[in-house]
Structures are given as C-alpha cells and as structure tokens.
Amino acid sequence: NEILSYFMKPLFPLFRNKKSQKITVPQLQELEGIPEYQQILPTHKINYRFISYAKLKEFDNLRIFAEELNVPISILRNDLTTLTRGMNHKITICIEYPYVDELYRDTYYSFYARKHAKYNRFCFRLSFFKDDVNETNYYDIDLTDKYYGYVVLRPTPKRVIGYTFLNPSIYSGHHYSICLCERASFVKGRKVVTTAFPFSGQDGEMTTCAETAATMLFDYFSRRYNKYSRLLPSQIADQLSNNLLDRKQPSVGIDVDTMATVMNAFGVNTRQYYVKEDESDIRQFAYSKEKFEQLLNIYVESGIPIYLATKTHAKIVIGRQNK
What we know:
alpha+beta
C-alpha cells in the first residue's frame, strides 16, 4: 500500500490541474481604423440584338463595331465582305457584346496589354441562325438544325475576324468533304450545337499564318479526340522563347521545322514531306511533284488535317471538293 500510494501521489495534482484548467477561446479584436465594407465587383451587362443578313454591313452597324473595337471601318467592312462571300442570305444574326474570347484574351494579356496603346479587352460575337429565328420566338422555337455557328470580331486593327466556327451549310456552295468537329455554345442562355472546322484570321502582330494554323489544328484535335489539348498563342511564344534567341513578339512568322518542334512539344508527332526543288535535293522525304501530290491525296482521303507550308505562307488542308 505504501508503495502504491507513493506512485499515485504525483498523479493526483496532475488530474486536479486538468479539471480546474479553464478553456479559453480566442476573442476577435476590433481592428483600428475605419472598417471597409465588402463591395460587389463591377460587372458588364451583356447586350443582345437580332438583325437580318441585309443589315449586317449597313453603315450604322459597322460604325458601332468600329468605334467600340477602335478599328478602321474600311478594314472591318473588307473582312466581313470576305467572310460573308457566298453565304446564304436567309439567316438571322445575333449580335452579342461584350464577349470574352479565349484566344483574343490570351493574346491581349501576353502582348496587346503591354503596348503603349489602348486596346479593348472585349469582342463582339455574331451568332448565325436560320431566318425563322428571331428575338420574339428565340426561347420558344426548337433550335436543333437552326444554328450555324459564330464569328468573333476582335479589336485588332490589322485583321478583325477572330475565332470562327461556322457550319459549311451556311454557304451556298458547300459541295465538298472536310474534317468536322462538334462544338457547343451558349447564346443568350440557350445551349446550341453545330459542327465545323475552326478558323481564325491572323492578327498580324502576335500571330501570323503559322501560329494561327497550328492553333486551329490543335483546336480541332482537342474537340475531336480527348487525347489532345488546345494550344494557345502565348504557349507557342513561350515554347519559342526556350529554343530561339531573337525576339518573338511581334511575330515575323515561323518556319516549318520550328513549327514541327512546337507541335512535338505539345504532343502531336509530325512527319514532314517536301517537294523536290531539283534533282540535287537528297532529303529523305523529298519527292517529285507528282509523288508529293499522290501522298497528299492519300492523307486528305484519310481525313487527317494537314499543316501545309510554302516559302511565304502556311495553311491547313482540311478536305477536298466533291467532283
């Protein structure tokens, strides 16, 4: 008993202290100075307006586009004329502003925002529907097979037409077979879906034909197959900065070998074929013009979009006419 009491004695004060110990809760203290009340961040009201095809290039509408985007009205008119050449006139266009375009916003923050000039952050979006769709029946009518796609008008003064996703059926002459992918969009709160091949005009500063063609190629693959991801212009510029020594922006273009390196870095393995310049051309995959066209036809018929480059230009081969 004495031994037991000897070992138990030191424990009693410990238990008593735990029982008598008070649990204190930290109290919030008032900060010195004037309290700041939380304010809601400012937002932009999105405006929509439905117009007919005939009114798209009227001076009043062109003036609104040009003034808001701060671009020359002549360039805007020329770009819209090129875009709508051969287009079916029986359509309704929904004008949306402001619109945040992923590609333009990427180039804005990586290039245009750092220039000593004021560029708008927002774009216009023109959504194209069949002519029986209007502002009155928009929420009542079935939009299946009535949506053609959309076009982005961006505030880049050299080329205004931005990301474009238009179904070929919007044009009168569409007797050809091309690569198509599906894209869903939300226009005025309604989900609409169409198929097309993505397109964008080059802005002439941040992107040239080479970057634009590669961006659209990756955009197609990312929507068609879940293995690939999209490629933004700023990612191309960052990749080039790791491999080239000269300045990357404004862009002066990218040769085909460098672009192949960029594509390989982002998961698209390439194979380059060349047209022989003369008989002394001994490159491994250099062929005569006839053999090159034969190989090109094989790839076209397989349904693979092809990055094609000449000495002065780059483009994407996406299909053929049905003859």
